[in-house]
Write a structure and sequence with these properties.
The chain is an all-alpha fold. It is built from 27 helices and no strands.
Amino acid sequence: MMLFLQMMPNLAESIITEIIRISEFVWSPGGMLAALTVLKPWIACIRPSEHSVEFIGRVVHQVASWTATLSGLQPHAISNLWRALSKADLLDNVFDLLCQLCSQGGNNLTVCIHACHVVCSQQPVATVRLLASRLNSEVENVHSESDDTAGKESQLSGMHAGVLLAGALIPIADEQSLAELLPLLLHRCILLCDDTDSIVQSRVRVALGSCVKRLAVGEAGQQLGASEALSAELMAGGGPLLPLFEEKHSIQPSALQHYISRISALVHSLTHVFGASHRLSERWGSVALDWLLHHRHAWKHQLISLAVINTVAPPVGPEAVLSLLDLIGETMQDPTSKNVMLAVEGVGTMSTLLQAVPASKMILFPQVLWGCVALLHTPFVSLFGAVLDLLQKLIPRLGLGDVQAQNVLFAAMPESWDPPFLGLVPLIQRGLYSEQTDSPARALLHTVCNSPFGALIDPSASRVLNTLIAQLPWMLENIESAQGQAVAAEIATCAELRGNTKLGKVRTSSCLMANTQSTT
């Protein structure tokens, strides 16, 4: 008989539909429990197809509404339904349904959590593989839905379902599978750490705490104790792990920095307890970078991903750095206050990544220099200051005195500039007009003053004059200090190298003051 029914899925669907229709008239826990008992064998007859996916969706949504409405309905009754649905050939469809339930929020999240426990216990190995493929596919496919509001909600519900599923899966999954999923799970949890839904918050804590408890086994007793303490803190606490951060049009920089510092502290705690055994910094950094580059519509998620990358500082290649540079450029095409903040964090993150690159390989990143040159035209002081800081760390490591390095930089230089490129010095001098950027601008001028790469620094014949005019007010004000005298000596050297021997004699404070007095 059962074999006959399996060969006639349309008959099974008709009977299930009729059972649901009749049950809606019997609005009581007993009636619904009886309906679920009758439904179980008929659901087992359904076979996967495009039609059956839609049909199963209607069944699950209907049952979910029953459990949300009827508090007297026993959990084991709905478990029978999930067990029937979670057989291997329908597992993929079940996960889609969980995503749909998550997108509705409210009581459906409770239904989803219960379903996750049943599904994971029925198909632990298959669920691990499914979860891994889904978490990866979210990153790969989200860019195609960047302008679609429904697409955004779908991705968010997918994240919710992933974290809920992970919370149920972690206690029963084998350690090898769990270790492979670790960076994906951690990043999804971090992205949902300030979710306003209390159920999502509790599951995020469970997922993170369970990961730490199962995988963070330290070599020393102190580290083991730290992992146990962190696991207990994560699972016992209530409320969001991060302060709620609203994406307003006007965001205070101090609030943004507090938010980022909290993210960094949480990420640091997690990476510390896991140690180097899982190569977490490298793998998590790669996951965060993928999310950052492909989720262009999710401003806050990009911000969190930047904070993660900045904290774990993974090793990167030229392709990743160029992608980050392109992202900063695209972000500034729409220079809202939020996008400017994102660009500032992006420049800071790029600085962190480049610090891990050996000096001998820095010449592999020539586009970063020209990207910074382009960004020095920005009217936004915060971004200008971040670029100055990056150049201060970058230029000394490029080996500008080496002819081969100069050739590589010239080859990577854009063919045309608007406005024309007149050298770094005139662009850096723009920072002298703002109190926020005056100090870093002077420090960078000090760094490039005597660089032999004149075509980059200042190709004009008035290089010495430009340098002197820029530095003279500050130099006179601080002439009695060691820094003031060092600047005077650098300007003198710059003049001597370019044939101005008279100005080159100005090497001490007394000579400088004497020349100044005779001139006046």
